[in-house]
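Handout, section B. The chain below has 137 residues.
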Amino acid sequence: MMVTLNKESMSVTREVDVIPFRNRLKEMATKIGMGLVNQTKLITAASELSRNMLRYANGGLITLEVVSKGRENGIRLTFKDEGPGIANIEQAMKDGFSTGKSLGLGLPGTRRLVSDFQIDSKVGVGTVVTIVKWKNG
């Protein structure tokens, strides 16, 4: 069972909002003793998801949580937007698929960088992406 130890939310509605979010994320990861490689993977994944939120939904809300499961600590991030939603999640999770003018590596690449990845999206309602990166994994 996962337990939340610390929780806060940040609004990301402009590109400049990504910087304090990334800084806060790095602080939290450092505080729990996450190594540099895992921090880099987490921050890269978080940057990609926050940019997607800005690009496709004009921003949204990110919840940052320090979580624990047994003796393992990690960080859970929830990205929630009220954008157009994703019509076909299975297709969006394939390498090379993009509705924009990108390489289409964002969502599948993000999934590879983190320990847990969940996405829920409803067309016309919005998208929620939750990722977890464990300190040692």
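Note. Helices lie at 18-31, 36-57, 89-92, 106-113. Compare this with the example in section A.
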